[in-house]
């Protein structure tokens, strides 16, 4: 049998997910085959062209019609955040497995409704997963495994940063990611969500409370003229930026350990720099996305003459996901996370297991995002992130 996928959206993430769906059955021995059935988008000519380029059998313009089809098993949502809830809930109610891009929603209320729909659908074996793809970089999965195995001992502090610089140019047009009604928030929800999820994933703990501050550095930008997404060109008029450019926040994990976070689109010179460091009483682990095939490990229990960070080359067959790829020392890249994501979802569907990160885990991230925003408007007061609503 094969699982037939409908992908809704065809921007940057549409390309990345298409690679994932194409490569997963070619590289891994999946329990079910995968078919790239339909690519959905609003512009008929553009979506047809993308479907042909990325190997989708068909294209369509109406996601509701596609979801109603009996021959679709998985609905993969890569649209802007303002349509995640409507599409995901409709797909789950129609009995389709769902993969939804991060952050799960634009608000906690939407994420709660989506999680309730996922819980209902789970009773008939339907799976719902959020696309926090970086969990599936082998070095990040290994980091999580090593923390769980006690290699750093008790986690005492976490340092996380996700830094980009694509907004430093004030003439960069007012794309959907800069509009609250479409994106929910700015750097916070787009890239801060990744480091929140990664912190909760690698420590196995939720972020219980936060104190944060946010800033919008360029407050007006040229309206989008021709083009779309982030690659459009500017027109003459200007409009207000309604989201954050920078979010800085501190969190306390459930254990009480402190974690610091920086999410910014104004880190001049930093293109896609994500770093995560976990410090414990026995050792430390550090990950850097710009060097994603490696993990740094410091073992405090090693003899004095061997003290120092060790660079683990995460390309051994014993490392997560790696055995199916190339011999040791042959590197993986950004796109492999999307392949691993497709593989893990197919395996969860076939085995009847939860597909992590579940919508419940996506909702937990959403509560942290809302808590940072709530804290920022209250002079950085500490906000309980476990129960936060909008
Ligand atoms: C844009 O900031 C973006 O594409 C994010 O939306 C992705 O989640 C991240 O992988 C790269 O940067």
Automatic annotation (TrEMBL):
GO MF annotations, alphabetized: nucleotide binding; oxidoreductase activity
GFO/IDH/MocA-like oxidoreductase domain ranges (all copies): 142-285
Protein name: Dehydrogenase
Record's keyword terms, sorted: NAD, Oxidoreductase
Pfam families: GFO_IDH_MocA, GFO_IDH_MocA_C3
Keyword NAD: yes
SUPFAM superfamilies referenced in this protein's UniProt entry, alphabetically: Glyceraldehyde-3-phosphate dehydrogenase-like, C-terminal domain, NAD(P)-binding Rossmann-fold domains
Residues of the Gfo/Idh/MocA-like oxidoreductase N-terminal domain: 3-131
